[in-house]
Amino acid sequence: MGKVIAVCTSDRKGIQKKDVSTAHFSAEWGIDGDAHAGKWHRQISLLSADKIEAFNKRGANVIPGAFGENLVVEGFDFRALPVGTLLRCNDVLLEMTQIGKECHSHCEIYKKMGDCIMPREGVFARVLEPGTISVGDEMAIVPREGHFPWQAAVITLGESGSGETISKRLRDVGYTVVEEPAIPDDVRVLKQQLMRLCDQRRLDLILVTGGAGSAAQEAMLAVSDKSTPGIASAVIRGKTLIAADPEEHMDALMDSAPQVMESLRNGR
């Protein structure tokens, strides 16, 4: 069980948020009036209160909202929870969608401390059910009923590829395709996307299609932890299965991937 320490909002991005004590959360949107609300996967940001406390002991002297977080909660180590975790606070139901974030430019906190905890400790969620959250409210993890659908992304390289067809095939058999980025046929760009989708979004499956050269294989090998025996052109990073040129072996992939993904989810 956790307890809400602060509820923070801002009217624009790129600034620290302020503790407003109470706020209304709209389904598939976020906090009413908050700059980060919208129809995307990072509607709400959460940070564990003990992480802020530990950072302040190092001399940071920051207050809730300084990292741009919406909710500060004590009693949870959010980073240790898996993507897909359901969090209930009053009528509000949140689903965790991402762990950590990319820091594109160093904030004032980083300039002072040489470090910032939000990129590694902050988590993000979307609002499934609406309601109001106030300081002092209790938050709890809600057990999920049934199997959490496989979370997937389909990356299309360059102008070629079968991204739409592959995504439809996945959705038809029950996968949730959360992202479909179309990016240049470039090793560096693909590596960045693979690391983001594996390390922050913690997806079960990433399929890479298109490209005229060897960018996919080179990028996959560069980010992989190990290969995947029995699945062609596939590697594993963390808990994510990554496969290239899926259109060439889609039936076999659909047969063998679930067993691998189940093993990765369960830590085997």
Give a description of the structure.
This protein is α+β, with helices and mostly antiparallel strands and 268 residues long. It folds into 2 domains: 2-142, PK beta-barrel domain-like (M1 Pyruvate Kinase, Domain 3, Beta Barrel); 151-265, MoaB/Mog-like domain (Molybdenum Cofactor Biosythetic Enzyme, Chain A), CATH 3.40.980.10. Helices cover 25% and strands 31% of the residues. It has helices spanning 49-56, 108-113, 118-121, 163-172, 187-199, 215-223, 250-265; strands at 2-9, 18-19, 22-26, 30-31, 44-48, 71-74, 86-89, 92-99, 123-129, 131-134, 138-142, 151-157, 176-179, 182-183, 205-210, 226-227, 234-237, 240-244. Strand 3 (22-26) and strand 4 form a beta hairpin. The radius of gyration is 20 Å and the shape is globular.
Notable traits:
268 residues; alpha+beta; M1 Pyruvate Kinase, Domain 3; Molybdenum Cofactor Biosythetic Enzyme, Chain A; seven-stranded mixed barrel
Structure at a glance:
With 268 residues, the chain is α+β, with helices and mostly antiparallel strands. It has helices at 49-56, 108-113, 118-121, 163-172, 187-199, 215-223, 250-265, and strands at residues 2-9, 18-19, 22-26, 30-31, 44-48, 71-74, 86-89, 92-99, 123-129, 131-134, 138-142, 151-157, 176-179, 182-183, 205-210, 226-227, 234-237, 240-244. The chain folds into 2 domains: 2-142, M1 Pyruvate Kinase, Domain 3 (Beta Barrel); 151-265, MoaB/Mog-like domain (Molybdenum Cofactor Biosythetic Enzyme, Chain A, 3-Layer(aba) Sandwich), CATH 3.40.980.10.
